[in-house]
Amino acid sequence: MTITLAFDVYGTLIDTDGVVARLRQILGEGAMEFSRRWRERQLEYSFRRGLMRAYQDFSVCTRQALDHTCLATGVSLTEEDRRGLIEAYRALPAFADAAPALSGLRAAGRRLFAFSNGSAEAVRALLEAAGLLDLFLDVVSVDEIRSFKPDPGVYHHLLRRSGATGASTWLVSGNPFDVIGAISAGLRAAWVRRSPSAVFDPWDIPPTLTVGGLLELRERLEELQAGARAEPGAPASGGGPPS
After folding, report:
1. Which one of 98, 135, 168, 206 is CB 3.0 to 4.6 Å from 94, fit for a cystine?
2. What digits encode the pLDDT tens for the residues 15-32?
3. pTM of the full structure
């Protein structure tokens, strides 16, 4: 069975803390905390819009989250600084392990898709700037069905667009909410736990696989497949929920 791998983009392939360098020019030592709060509010806005069926492009969530973070922290940005931060978010850097890991997985015959809350246009531009776009078969965006992860419909849309089944499809994400959403929708999921201090949500829905970085993924998937082949009747892609 050919494995399809759907990679979350923001926070998995692309480092959202890449905006900190620009923030340091404005805020100094408070840059990292401001970045964290901005990212958390951005995700919260996408969750709320998904539940309310009040969809707006992810870039709207990003801009409004920036405005809220400024209000909450008492930071006053010039219009030039604000534009600069939004532009920085459109050109975030890739994690160092992204390109070699994706290249190795593609060479191993995996079907690779980028799968994001961002619009297809924004994600393509981001991945192209990071030198990753050509490693994917396609970019699948939630914008196509006007909702956000972890809405189950978003993961079902991924399966339709990729022509794959839940049993053969893995979401790869650094975001626990995304991993839980994918598994709940019938996919398998690998959590990329880049920091030992990162905590997974205690929902009794564990990741199918946990890796410390993207470079571990190829070997771990091969191990699971080898183990599955050794067990009569086991699914070819390893443990996890049925499709």
Report:
1. 98
2. 999 999 999 999 999 999
3. 0.91
